[in-house]
Amino acid sequence: MEAREALALHGGPKTKTTPYGTGVKHDATAEAEALRARLEAGPLPLAMGPSIKELRQKVQEMFGVRFCVPTSSGTAAVHTALAALGVTPGDEVITTPVTDHGTVIGIMQLNAIPVFADVNPATMMIDAGTIEPHITSRTRVILPVHLAGCPADMDGICRLARKHGLKVLEDCAQSWMAEWNGRLVGTIGDAGIFSINESKHISAGEGGVLLTNDEEVARYADLFADKSYNRSGQGPIDPVMPALNYRMSEVNAVLAIEQLKKVREVAARRWELGERLAAEIEGLPGIRLLRPPAGSKSSYWHGVLLVDKEEAGVDGPEFTRALVAEGISASCPVSRNLLDWPLFRRLNEDPRAFPTYIAPGLEKGRFALESCPNVLALATRSVRVHLNEFCTDQDIDETARAIRKVARWYRG
Ligand SMILES: Cc1ncc(COP(=O)(O)O)c(C=O)c1O
Q1: Which of 108, 118, 178, 411 is the most buried (most CB within 10 A)?
Q2: Does residue 351's CB lie within 6 angstroms of at least one atom of ligand 1?
Q3: How many angstroms is it from 292 CA to the middle of ligand 1?
Q4: What is the residue-wise DSSP string for 355-373?
Q5: pTM of the predicted model, to two decimals?
Q6: Directed axis angle between helix 30-40 and helix 250-281, to 10°?
Q7: 171: Cβ below 6 Å to ligand 1?
Q8: What phi and psi values does residue 168 have, to the nearest 5 degrees?
Q9: Class of CATH domain 30-260
Q10: Could you tell me the distance, in angstroms and rounded to a whole number, from the CA of residue 301 to the centre of ligand 1?
């Protein structure tokens, strides 16, 4: 049993005094070489260039899916996927308020309605139980977000979707190579999307990919993301519908291909470090690391601690202050609550607040802050701790030591 030590917050010795391990996502050899080779090979076609084609192929092989549509961002991939899944104005898409804006922009660009289900307090994610009460005759798609590397309960969500005849779009922007019951996320629902922006497991600067096994969804997505030019080689090329330019460029594709070579290793290292941290802090009353059930895998975009004030004797913000004083990179809460943003506060009061967002059937009061009490509670329960593939074993052991020290102090 470790003795109770004075917290650094109160003038005691700091737990972590050495800097975190660092590294770079893009090395100046492989990526720069690939870019040079691509530029030397000739001009960059507008769409369906050789690197875009290669990226499609590589993603399809890696995930074992039939189709991959590269896009200019994860946000664009969500928008494209929803359109391809048949979302139209006034339709409802059930999702989570614990996410990035990119999850919901596409819903709103289609003049559809994001319906925010509360999260399960144990997982911080929506699941069949929290989604089902929100299903109406206007629900079209369920849009779960695999949070911070941790997979959502896809068995329950897919079963529910089948029961009600709904489509499932997986938002995997934060969860490259995470697995639910042995299956890669992004391959379980009707479609999945990933982001390749600079903050994600791998980065092409900007970019996204859409995965699906549904030929019709892929065909529509290709048109929607490419101003609806028909580049299939069959029939005329002329646009057939109003659509955006959401294409990924050849340059981004070159970077994405190089980064894809590293993604398994990146995710495996994060999984190893996350599990090390989980084991090191197991059994602490009221403190636990968010991790999936046995048989599933998190790719730990970062570490997420859940703090139960009753049991731990401390809330998330205070726990975070104490960790930061111990030299740990931590913040609270893990993710902002979308319902608390000016956007949804305004729409809650006035469904016609924005001239570019006209959702048929959207009524006042649809985005009430108190509609998701478990999400509200996360403001003082969820703590983000630094964890990425560049962390050393020592970084994680020090993180665990600091967590144990702080937890012990507050338990008294
Ligand atoms: C859960 C989630 N969905 C969608 C996105 C949007 O991705 P992008 O920034 O590539 O548009 C993000 C990006 O942070 C995200 O975290």
Answers
A1: 178
A2: no
A3: 21
A4: TT---TT--TTTT-GGG-H
A5: 0.97
A6: 160
A7: yes
A8: -120, 125
A9: alpha beta
A10: 12
How confident is the model at residue 2, as a pLDDT? 64
**Residue with CA closest to ligand 1 atom 10:** 74
pLDDT for res 232:
86
Q: Which two tokens stand for residue 150?
A: 């941790």
Q: Which of 73, 79, 157, 100 is nearest to 123 (CA)?
A: 157
Q: Which atom of ligand 1 is nearest to the CA of 147?
A: 1
Q: What does the pLDDT read at residue 249?
A: 97
Backbone angles phi, psi at 345, to 5 degrees: -65, -40
Helix (H, G, I), strand (E, B) or coil at 405: helix
Instruction: Output the residue whose Cα is nearest ligand 1's atom 14.
Output: 100
Q: Is the CB of 73 under 6 A from ligand 1?
A: yes
Question: What local confidence, expressed as pLDDT, does residue 136 receive?
Answer: 98
Residue 80 in contact with ligand 1 by CB distance below 6 A:
no
Q: Contact 131/94 with Cβ under 8 angstroms?
A: yes
Asked whether 72 lines ligand 1 (CB < 6 A), one says no
Domains of the chain, by residue range, sit at 30-260
Per-residue confidence (pLDDT) for residue 412, from 0 to 100: 83
**Side-chain half-sphere of 386: how many Cα atoms within 13 Å?**
21
Q: Which residues of the chain have pLDDT under 50?
A: 1
Cβ atoms 144, 119 nearer than 8 A: no
Our answer on whether the CB atom of 151 is closer than 6 Å to any ligand 1 atom is no
Q: Establish whether residue 335 lines the binding site of ligand 1, counting it when its CB lies within 6 angstroms of any ligand atom.
A: no
Q: Report the distance separating Cα 412 and Cα 410, nearest Å.
A: 5
195 CA from centroid of ligand 1 (Å):
6
Mutation choice for ligand 1 from 93, 95, 99, 100, CB with most ligand atoms inside 8 A:
100
Asked if residue 243 lies in contact with residue 223, where contact means CB atoms within 8 angstroms, the answer is yes
Question: Is the C-beta atom of 389 inside 6 A of ligand 1?
Answer: no
DSSP code per residue over 241-276: S---B-PPPHHHHHHHHHHHHHHHHHHHHHHHHHHH
What is the C-alpha to C-alpha distance for residues 354 and 341, in angstroms, rounded to an integer?
A: 15
Per-residue model confidence (pLDDT) at position 28: 75
Can you give the pLDDT at residue 26?
A: 85
Query: Would you call 309 exposed, middle or buried from its count of C-beta atoms within 10 A (0-12, 13-18, 19+)?
Result: middle
3-state secondary structure of 63: helix
